[in-house]
Amino acid sequence: MKKFWFIIILCAGVFFGCRSLGIRVLGVRQHYDDLSEEEKSSVVWTHPEEHIGDVANDGRIYAITGRQLRMMIEEGPRAVLYCWDPFCKSEVCVSLHHLQRRCNEHSVKLFVVADFFFGAFTQNLALTDHPLFVKNSEVYGTDRCATLQKLFFIDLLGDSVYNENAETFLWHRYLYFEDGKFVDVITNPDTFFK
User: Fold this and answer.
1) What 3-state DSSP class applies to 179?
2) Which residues share a beta bridge with 110?
3) Mean pLDDT throughout 142-165?
4) Nearest-angstrom CA–CA distance, 192 and 126
5) What is the mean pLDDT of the chain?
6) SS3 state of residue 107
7) CA-to-CA distance for 144 and 50, rounded, in angstroms?
């Protein structure tokens, strides 16, 4: 029991020590407040009822809801959603440029939703069809990545589809849609597009 409490206290000390020293723990929060003023001015906070449509990539990042993304996905026959972490080093985390090219080759619309803001601005220009999106923390009332993801997916897919696949969504970054409906997760986009 002493070992358990020691580990808890150690983890709390590391977490709060990192925060007090200004060290960012990526993947926990979106970190909007840590952006420069120039970067903040490049974030578009959309109204949750606003229909975005076929917005072109103008270099800005759009904060949207799952419902707004669903409306965009419903406008085309096939789409891929990439839940993107700019610092992911896994073999299944492909570059935005590569995935955009593969989607274009197969006439699939690509929508990329970043987990957080760091590293996103420099890679946004790799996208051609749509700008980079983030989950709208102002609408959802939290900037915690895990909570945002759950609320965003419930908005995007509905309660029943989310609840049936919640565990799957934790481990896969790509979702495939046909005629506006969720079909399946994609484990590796390179094998999917063969």
Assistant:
1) coil
2) 80
3) 89
4) 21
5) 84
6) coil
7) 23
pLDDT of residue 163: 79
Residue recorded with tokens 């957080």: 116
Write down the pLDDT at residue 65: 97
Please spell the DSSP secondary structure of 31-94, one letter per residue: -GGGS-HHHHTTEEE--TT----S----S-EEEE-HHHHHHHHTTSSEEEEEEE-TT--STT--
Give the pLDDT confidence score for residue 86 in this predicted structure: 85
Are 150 and 78 spatial neighbours (Cβ–Cβ below 8 Å)?
A: no
The C-alpha R_g of the chain, in whole angstroms, comes to 18
What's the CA gap between 143 and 128, in Å, rounded?
Answer: 27
Residue 28 identity: V
Quote the pLDDT of residue 2.
64
The alpha carbon dihedral of 67, 72, 73, 79 has a sign of negative
Q: Taking 70 as the threshold, does the pLDDT of residue 26 lie above it?
A: no
Q: Tell me the pTM.
A: 0.82
Question: 3-class secondary structure for 144-177?
Answer: EHHHHHHHHHHHHHCHHHHHHHHHHHHHCCEEEE
Structure tokens that stand for 107 in this block: 């006439």
Q: In this structure, are strands 174-178 and 78-84 parallel, antiparallel, or unpaired? A: antiparallel
Residue 128 has pLDDT above 90, yes or no: no
